[in-house]
Design a protein that fits this description.
Strand order of the largest sheet of chain A: 2-1-3-4-8-7-13-9
Organism (chain A): Cyclobacterium plantarum
Oligomer: heterodimer
Strand order of the largest sheet of chain B: 3-2-1-4-16
CATH topology of chain A: Rossmann fold
CATH superfamily of chain A: Thiamin diphosphate (ThDP)-binding fold, Pyr/PP domains
InterPro entries (chain A): 2-oxoacid:Fd_oxidoreductase, THDP-binding, TPP_enzyme_TPP-bd
Structural class of chain A: alpha/beta
CATH superfamily of the domain at 110-202 and 353-417 in chain B: FAD/NAD(P)-binding domain
Largest interface: A-B, 37 and 39 residues
CATH class of the domain at 110-202 and 353-417 in chain B: Alpha Beta
Helix content of chain A: 25-40%
Radius of gyration of chain B: 26 Å
CATH architecture of the domain at 110-202 and 353-417 in chain B: 3-Layer(bba) Sandwich
Distance between the termini of chain A: 68 Å
Number of strands of chain B: 24
Number of helices of chain B: 22
CATH class of chain A: Alpha Beta
Keywords (chain A): Oxidoreductase
Order of helices and strands of chain A: HEHEHEHHEEEHEHEHEEEEHEHHH
Domain Thiamine pyrophosphate enzyme TPP-binding (chain A): 65-213
Strand content of chain B: 15-25%
Number of strands of chain A: 13
Protein name (chain A): 2-oxoacid:ferredoxin oxidoreductase subunit beta
Chain lengths: 350, 593
Amino acid sequence: MTYLKPLFRHPKLPKNKLGYTLKEYEGTISTLCAGCGHDSISATIVQACFELSIEPHLVAKISGIGCSSKTPAYFLGNSHGFNSVHGRMPSVATGANLANKNMVYFGVSGDGDTASIGMGQFVHVIRKNLNMVYIVMNNGCYGLTKGQDSATADVGSASKSGHINPFQPVDLASLAVELGATFVAQSFSGDKQQLVPLIKAAIQHKGLAFINVMSPCVTFNNNPGSTKSYDYVREHMQATGTLDFVPEREAIKAEYAAGTDTAVSLHDGTVMRLHKLAPEWNPEDRLSAVNAMQQARAKNEILTGLLYINTEFGDLHDILNTSDGAFNTLGEKALCPGEEQLQAINASLR
Amino acid sequence: MKPTDTRNPEYYHKVVDCQYACPAHTPVPEYIRKIAAEKYTEAYMINWESNVFPGILGRTCDRPCEPACRRGRVEEEPVAICRLKRVAADNKGDVQSLMPQGPFSPNGKKIALIGGGPASLSVARDLAPLGYEIHLFDEQIAGGGMMRSQIPAFRLPEEVLNEEVGYILNLGIHTQFMTYVESLKEVLEKDYDAIFVGTGAPRGRDLPKLPGRKEADAHIHIGIEWLAGVAFEHIDKIGKKVIVLGGGNTAMDCCRTSRRLGGESVKVVVRSPFKDMKASPWEKEDAMHEDIEIFDNHVPLSFEVENGKLTGMKFQRVKAVYDDAGKRKLLPTGEPDVFIEADEVLIAIGQENSFPWIERDLGLKFDEWNMPEVDKVTFQSTHPKVFFGGDAAFGPENVITAVAHGHQAAVSIHLFCQGKDITKRPAPYTKLFSTKMGIHEWSYDSPVTIDQRYLVPQAEKSVTLLDRRKEVELGFDLPTGYKEAQRCLNCDVQTDFTADRCIECDACMDICPTSCITFTTNEEDEDQLRQKLLVPATDKTQDILVSENLKTGRVMVKDEDVCLHCGLCAERCPTSAWDMQQFFYSVTKAENI
């Protein structure tokens, strides 16, 4: 039997600007079910970080509980990680981010971890616009406890045992836009061509970048009647547009039908080029985004791609006007200014 | 591109690089697994069926399989396939009882084999069990041909040779040793149904025009003749200072044998640069280990003679210059000529065919180079009854090629004697079956070890140089043999893909350690498709596996180049669209027609 990934890699594996290959971004071998959508998302994160030449030690992966929250073990093995409490990933991420703002933060969560137990945290981390990539691996069921319907399961969706879900789903992307998230996207684990540039854009975006990824549970929710199966998602996917970076890659692979082009400048100077498929939709206009999502829902479509982006609104550090450096660069004197300072603060509060 | 037809046996055969490269197509991974399982007898018999001389080849094979080995493409060194074969031969149990048991009921046909080397012996082994009456003629005292006369005993002990030649001769072959066939016409006049010529390339090249050649003749010997003289004990000593001319394996055997017969200062002098020498790298290493100096880029100018006695040789210094086509020219460097002292000189600069005993008016055509016209597939000459094989057919090659020729010639002879069309060749025998035993369990060792190639231990130089019969290589001991066997990547366990089961979850693509698998849109042009893979498939000697169209209209494309056959694609596949299927391929022998 094999349960170790062989150490050999393709001798001609491409290298990025740091001289690293994909191998430096991989994690340990996945223990999720064979064919799990989550593994594809892990591979996509690996690919995106590789392509952006991110130093692995400058990444922190923070997760809650669930199949999705196990995945940080399976990507970026040379990065930092914190597998936290159920639904409490945003709190831990907030603490880490406040201590060191110079890292890339991946918050990895699932539909249970976000839309049920972690709903409160989800709502507030969006309000605070914490600079992180918040990925929900959304499979519409509780895979770790044998596939009960989750809060994102569509009404009328059938489980593997034939049970029909009677409840309305939580639409995480709509909710995120409603709450003022500054980057909202939706995608599908089986569409790397879309997901890789989305994750790259999310990393570049300053502020909370939320990506809701349909990620089929191959064991408990890939049956006919399910609205989160590979076949259903593929049939009902409708992309808002294709996304690419200039000058990261010059040509857009023409797999989608033609539309119009829009350029969005990110805070670090990167230009994100959007090839829009829906001409009336404007990703920088909240109303337009909400409209597009509601229309898609009415047509039983799963709208994918970038849905909404706001590059104006500052992140949590801007809002709180925190110090420039990370804690670990400030030195003891700045971090512990001494008795006198403490007395002064206390006095100002009296 | 059109979907790959994996049901064509040659597709999966080509994936098994070692087997594909082997002229006899020995099922290498199959016998290596047997060695790892301590089933040495079975491993030996798989070899014996395919290459007839496992013990001999396990010591002396030219190993075309090893440069082809996939392992060499993912790390430094290929699996030591050849020496693992020896492990099987050294540790086997009773094999005689597993071989065809005579006496065989006669089928009324008579065959003559001329020459007793590997080609003829392979024909004999394949045809004897079918009831042919086989007469083997050889000028030497015993069977084996060049394996006996040219391969020194310190590389191939006589017992090993005798044993494996014996297995064949014991099948009821009528041998006539010490018999030089002087006329093919006379043989044809006897009532043989077919004649096989396996007389090798018996003439060593000379340097007849080099100044001093005649005067110094007593101290100059032709390499292969001299080696035969040593093997048959006509020669037992040589001068202290020896020059060996030539850079092939015969030159290596000559210099190493010289060291054992009294040569103290033995120098190999070769025209070409060291890296271009024809000798196998390991033979060069072994020679240098025995204090033999190799002088490359030296072209012989003359034999120097003083008072009728050889004193040495003069050489011109040259350098190799390659033109754009890679063709080599040796240009003088202008440095002064070099004189090297010598008491004796061995000329090992190649050998050639010679058929003085074949009359030219028998209807057997010869070409402009005085070589018989022989069909490359059937091995039939232009005389329908006469077949050729081994070095005699197309010039000097090696033992394993001769064996492969022998198998095919035997097929032809068998078809011919039955009055059948010999151009209709039998299809190979193949099997393909799943190795799946459980969720993470396969019937082969799928984990890939990272061990580097193990060295074969050698006996001390101080011992081996004193006795020309003392075998230098000791062979792997069993624990090392096991570890070396585990380096095999099991390339015969194929990644078999069924498109209509695939749900395109990408799990295989994500897990594949060597990035072999890509899901993409198809292209008409193969080169374009090769460029679209995760890592472009630039090695066109390796095939790509293209699936039928998938649901999304894409195809799965797998580059076979550096696939580790680790089975992770199949383990991560939720629908068993991937399966690890063991592929067995065997060249059909005369016996199985």
